[in-house]
Inverse folding.
């Protein structure tokens, strides 16, 4: 079946693309509101896109009324954000921070999440996250109703047990972040791994 995502099936583009391009990593983004409270929200239109410089992109969709979400407003205003990655143990808390709360209510406080200071950006990290990436905004691209926030990763915090200190590699066999699958409510575990050696 052929689908026209710019025409007849445009209203189903999100469901179709989100249901096909998966699993997707989850960017659990912390930013600071204007009053200094911590905003935390998950986004699955996210990935890393290079290493020189270390570049990631996430796309916070707009609210149903078409206005930008707090994460987008905060990142644009301050030029800083932190991407926290989501472990199995944090999946419920991550999901809880996707709820729409009254303006000024911090998701981290609402969910009882402990934060830790970042090293070079003002927004804090989620202390229990397996890894956190401190980022400064490189640029923000708006394409139609899509808002892409490009960030340069300045610092990485990773739980010590996940890091092979000798080779500075992540122990893939014990790192199992949660992945996002199709809409509206599907997620996946990432513990079922296999290796394939790239041919020379």
């Amino acid at each position: 079946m052929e689908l026209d995502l710019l025409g007849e099936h445009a209203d189903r583009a999100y469901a179709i693309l989100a249901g096909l391009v998966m699993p997707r990593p989850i960017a659990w983004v912390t930013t600071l509101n204007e009053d200094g409270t911590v905003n935390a929200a998950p986004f699955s239109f996210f990935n890393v896109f290079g290493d020189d410089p270390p570049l990631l992109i996430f796309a916070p969709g707009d609210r149903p009324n078409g206005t930008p979400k707090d994460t987008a407003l905060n990142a644009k205003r301050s030029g800083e954000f932190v991407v926290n990655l989501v472990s199995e143990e944090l999946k419920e808390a991550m999901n809880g921070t996707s709820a729409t709360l009254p303006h000024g209510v911090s998701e981290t406080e609402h969910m009882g999440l402990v934060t830790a200071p970042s090293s070079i950006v003002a927004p804090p990290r989620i202390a229990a996250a397996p890894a956190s990436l401190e980022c400064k905004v490189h640029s923000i691209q708006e394409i139609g109703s899509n808002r892409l926030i490009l960030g340069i990763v300045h610092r990485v915090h990773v739980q010590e047990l996940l890091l092979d200190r000798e080779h500075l590699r992540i122990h893939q066999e014990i790192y199992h972040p949660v992945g996002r699958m199709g809409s509206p409510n599907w997620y996946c575990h990432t513990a079922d791994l296999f290796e394939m050696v790239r041919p020379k």
Q: What stands out?
A: The radius of gyration is 17 Å.
